[in-house]
Amino acid sequence: MAIATVNPATGETLKTFDALNAGEIEDHLVRADQAFQEHRTTSFGYRKERMLAAADLLDADQDGIARTMTTEMGKPLAQARAEAAKCAKTMRWYAHHAEELLADEHPDPADVSDSGAIRAVVRYRPLGPVLAVMPWNFPLWQVVRFAAPALMAGNTGLLKHASNVPQTALYLEELFRRAGFPEGCFQTLLIGSGAVEDILRDPRVVAATLTGSEPAGRAVASTAGDEVKKTVLELGGSDPFIVLPSADLDKAVRVGVTARVQNNGQSCIAAKRFLVHQDVHDAFAERFTARMAALTVGDPMDEHTDIGPLSSEQGRSDLEELVDDAVHRGATALCGGRRPPEHGAGWFYEPTVLSGITDGMRIHREEAFGPVATLYRVADLDEAVRLANDTPFGLGSNAWTRDPDEQQRLARDVQAGGVFFNGMTASHPGIPFGGVKRSGYGRELSGHGIREFCNMTTLWYGPED
């Protein structure tokens, strides 16, 4: 895939970039390793000052970088601004909390005395240069939620971003440099996916994190496993949105629409499968479909647009195939199900609601990456749980019930990295984020995220002679 900015609203190629050659990649690896030797010894106060400077710069740049993101991958401009603001917030969160999150731990001397120690200490030390392979759908946020904790922990970062967001990728390197981080602390590698394996096998690269597709995750995990290197993977999702009779139905409908179409429906943690109890199914379906059909599809730079184009022509084709397969096998499109005829240029797709989904349809098992919701009628809580788990993925989940017993059952039995009750699934710097099953492993954000790329070192002190 060419490294290029292609406007998905028009299909126009705006700017192309040459991939780094072998010598240039080597230069980046040298700088990352040299920068780590310096950066790992700096104080939390030093890193905090620079991370806060990066947040301030990002706030000042918000409109410009938002327009770059919208141009490169098509998200509505207001959502792009919100993404930039969230990144600045997360930088500040880690700037203020990293030192306490990575503070030395001191086991009770009485609990370790039988080891012969007079005391023991657990210390979190940085690992080294970490390779981040990141996707296009949240081109700023996906990177910052890795970079902020990694840099605050004392690591250095090498970013292999998606090939369709090169200008956003280059902006991130420039941002951290402008904030005062030493040369080489955070670098963007303009490379194709074929160059990833050799970089990950380089002994100077100590670990990797990837957010993206399941095949990409398998490839990185396989290479890292062969090299015995740590990885964190956040892959696909097919999140359930469970609605039970005690739910606030109007709120569930309103939030459900946003949860499905945020980022033009291109989010791993977007609600995708709506599992609605038979007692409220018809009322939910009617209101939900009406709201989906009323959304405005159009120019993502227009402040009144709800849904912009999909990021690529291939992405739209993949989504169409899932919808067409479902309809061919008996599903009903309550709204949408086609390319909007008034948008001939660009990779637009109508907000769509499909009902009558069966397990023989591809969309029942595969992730629909676009503004397409699948609607299921469930008889009871048991069926809701069964269908929620009837997927190879387990990233997020959403449940609407005010019954404490039902909440406890769902918290216990839904196979996902998170269960959000009566509110939209979201990521936040203070809450761990990640999945199970084929949605990946490891956690980002919170204290768990910053410790993923640390050496948890045991310091053992014996009695002095």
TrEMBL record:
Pfam families named in the record: Aldedh (PF00171)
Superkingdom of source: Bacteria
Claim: Magnesium is one of the keywords in the record: no
PROSITE patterns per UniProt: ALDEHYDE_DEHYDR_CYS (PS00070)
InterPro entries: Ald_DH/histidinol_DH, Ald_DH_C, Ald_DH_CS_CYS, Ald_DH_N, Aldehyde_DH_dom, ALDH_GabD1-like, GABD/Sad-like
Aldehyde dehydrogenase domain span: 3-458
GO molecular function, one term: aldehyde dehydrogenase [NAD(P)+] activity
Swiss-Prot/TrEMBL keywords: NADP, Oxidoreductase
UniProt similarity note: Belongs to the aldehyde dehydrogenase family.
Protein name, UniProt field: NADP-dependent succinic semialdehyde dehydrogenase
